[in-house]
Amino acid sequence: MKYRKLGASDLMVSEIALGSWLTYGVGVKQDAARACVDRAFDLGINFIDTANVYGRGAAETFLGDALSARPRDSYLLATKLFFPMSDNDKGLSATQIHKQIDASLQRLRTDYVDLYQCHRYDADTPLEETMAALSEVVRQGKARYIGFSEWSPSQIEAAFAIPGVERFVSSQPQYSLLHRRPEEKVIPFCTGNGVSQIVWSPLAQGVLTGKYEPGAKLPTDSRAASDTMGTMMNNWLRPEVLAAVHNLKPLVKEANCTMTQFALAWVLREPNVASAIVGASRPEQLNENAAASGLEIDPMLFTKAEALVANIG
Predict the structure, then answer these.
(1) Rounded CA separation 294/310 (Å)
(2) Which residues contact 54 (CB under 8 A, 6 or more apart)?
(3) Quick check: helix, strand or coil at residue 115?
(4) Which helix (H) or strand (E) holds 31?
(5) What is the pLDDT of residue 223?
(6) E strand residue ranges, 104-256
(7) N or C: which end of the chain has fewer CB within 10 A?
(8) Close Cβ partners of 108 (under 8 Å, ≥ 6 residues apart)
């Protein structure tokens, strides 16, 4: 496993991170989830990403239990807030930030998180209030650093323009061979301002693994076939998307790796990406994911792959 520095922080994160969206505490049985966490550590994955809203606290509760016997300095833990935890608990107000960090720390069974992230931008709360409260969380020792997910370039710039507050060190956008929007403005701005990308859905929710063939039935053991984990995949299961991904297979064969490894290595080719978040329901999936770290692939194969999927959006 290779490690990269996370923005202007002193955190060295594994190039592959273990995520918990739709999986732990929700769609994956507890024994299998624990086996995935254990395998992640065996493979050198030190970065674990979650959020309070995943399973309305269930993912954090699971991780708090699964990590409780491990030394706290043996892993880096990131969580998020913004989405509703109840009818009255949502957003990035100072009240919510202080309430939700305490609730997350209790579920995670830890005194601090390494990274506390704004899951989205809150247009209903003054940005100055949000940044001041996040800064208090850091200065109280409840979080080491702060980050954001899916903020627009103008929102990011506005946060950096506020004096006297903690600075973001991470951005968590959707980014993959099939979704390249962050390259337009977010990555260039972040590169010059000490912010790294921690990307979610680098495999387009599994579509870039090549397991979903055009015109074929969904594999019964796949995320797409799951009632709990496949509800947000319709956009990626369009025939034209599956056909384009199928056409990548000769290039991947030439690269002498798997589809999964090719897609993850493509994301990691970008220097501003510190880590790619993967979701795993079986330990063996992590074996394949981890092997993408440090994988060297001819850039010309990436260029050809980009051309094959260029019209997918």
Answers:
(1) 25
(2) 20, 21, 22, 24, 25, 26, 60
(3) strand
(4) helix 30-42
(5) 52
(6) 113-118, 143-148, 168-171, 196-199
(7) C
(8) 50, 60, 63, 64, 67, 77, 79
For the cut 60, the answer to whether the pLDDT of residue 52 exceeds it is: yes
String of DSSP letters for 179-201: B-GGGTTHHHHHHTTT-EEEEB-
Q: Give the model's confidence band at 24: pLDDT under 50 very low, under 70 low, under 90 confident, else very high.
A: confident
Predicted confidence (pLDDT) per residue in 63-78, tens digit: 999 999 999 999 999 9
- Spatial CB neighbours of 42, under 8 Å, sequence gap ≥ 6: none
- Residue 225: per-residue pLDDT: 43
pLDDT tens-digit readout, 242-279: 999 999 999 999 999 999 999 999 999 999 999 999 99
Residue 28 φ/ψ region, left for φ over 0, alpha for ψ in the -120 to 50 degree band, beta for the rest = beta
Distance CA 287, CA 259 (A): 14
Largest CA distance in the chain: 56
**What span, in angstroms and rounded, lies between the C-alpha atoms of 84 and 90?**
4
Strand pairing report for 113-118 and 168-171: unpaired
User: Distance (Å, rounded) from C-alpha 6 to C-alpha 15?
Assistant: 10
- Phi and psi for 196 in degrees, rounded to 5? -105, 160
How many CA atoms are closer than 13 Å to the CA of 63, on its beta-carbon side?
32
Residue 245 has a pLDDT of 93
Q: How far is CA 297 from the centre of its chain?
A: 23
pLDDT tens, 173-222?
999 999 999 999 999 999 999 999 999 999 998 999 998 887 556 555 54
**Smallest Cα–Cα separation from 81: which of 94, 69, 71, 68?**
94
Confidence check: pLDDT of 241 > 60: yes
Cα distance from N-terminal residue to C-terminal residue, the chain: 31
Contact by Cβ (8 Å): 205, 241? no
* Torsion 53-58-64-66 (CA) sign: negative
Catalytic center residues: 54
